[in-house]
Amino acid sequence: MKKLNELLNCDYDVKVTGIKINSREIEEGDLFICTDMGTMDRHEFIDDAIERGASAIIVKKDVGEKSVPIIKVDNPNDVLPIIESKFYGAPETKLTMIGVTGTDGKTSVATMVQTLLGEETCGYIGTNGYSCSKFNKDTNNTTPDADKLYGYLDEFVKADCKYCSMEVCSEALMRGRVKNIEYDVSILTNITSEHLNIHGTLENYIADKCKLFSQTSMDGYCILNKDDEHFLQAKAACKGKILTYGEGSDNDLYFKDIMLLPGRNLFTIVYKDKEYKIDSPMAGYFNIYNLSAAILTLFALGYDFDYIEKRIPLLKVSGRLELIDMGQDFYVMVDYAHTPNGITKLLEYVRLLPIKRSIVVIGQAGERDPYKRKTVGEIVSKNCDLAIFTYEDPRSEDPKDIIDMMIENIKDRDNYEIIIDRSKAIKRAIDVAKPGDMVMVLGKGNETYEKLKDRVIYFNDIEECKKHLEDRLKVTNR
Known about the structure:
By secondary structure, the chain is α/β, with parallel strands linked by helices. 33% of the residues lie in helices and 24% in strands. The strands form five sheets. It has an eleven-stranded mixed beta sheet, with helices on both faces. Strands 18-19-23-20-21-22 form a six-stranded mixed beta sheet, with helices on both faces. Helix 13 links the parallel strand 20 and strand 21.
């Protein structure tokens, strides 16, 4: 608990028990901050916040007199992280902050870094929630709003963590959610066209991604994928020492002697002229890049390879290349891949495996970048034997409209079906699979929700696959 004048330069000494930007979450004594989210005017909910017990309100525009103190500022979005940091005692300064950005691979790299450092000493924030050895909790956003983020960091501090490995998405950087955090290590996975509905242009998207590197400490490290086509733009934004990884021997860390196997990667990394053999449980060529970034991060933090090598067998990213084995005679995989680049890389990997047919269940999110939908449809249809198009977080859009955009350029093909209900689409894929086939359910990974037009429902692709596999096996074993 703090007093308002301890958090903000004002004359009010009312007690603040918490800080919220959603009026529905207000509890007695909370400070309500009317941030601009681009989709709504939070000033409209001031009366609701007061009725729920708000002790004070921070606003951007005149709202008249209220029964609680009203403080007007130029930009509530800028004020929010400053107040949050003060409220929680600047937890971001008590942790070594590691930020991962990129179109694909954020969850994998951030989770790998946590695993290699150890969950007892490193917290994780991202798509799969926020966690350390003492807890594992859900989040609403890949990179939470500041009213949640600093509380999570404070929980890590109280759990005796020394590090925080977090995904930093482009929208969070654009909206300033992490504006006041100085990162000790920042990591670039890759940048491909994505989220243009939010950023407007690819140039804006790249610029927002690169903000992470300008927020890196002068004494810190910017770890960049030199093989990415936007490497130079990221490099230009860097404040910290630049370390690179990739295929070429001109990198600080490079990899060679690659052997891709089902469920494993064997390769060699070279760092400071020393070679190290890697036997990784994270399969796929793209995971060579991801693990290289994570290993280079630990090298930068002062860890030696003996420590790293012992922890590599522990690597596992929930919802990434997650094979589900219930004794069936075909493969079932759940993966988060949802961008054109991510889907392409995954299907390229699967083509190298000793499987027969490939069956893909996939959709595209509503109220998100519509320009990639037909590209995704073409990629999937071209690279699998059977595509089943379904819904994926349609939100306010009609899922049939989204699917129509996905099949726009493949209507003359005969290797796809449309099943709008996602559960039924997964069931269909499992029911038609034959011995040696690979069923892939893409887009959601281990997420536990579907955002529909009028509500959010519980839904988990992994659980759905298990349910339908169990039903099929019951029939088979009769």
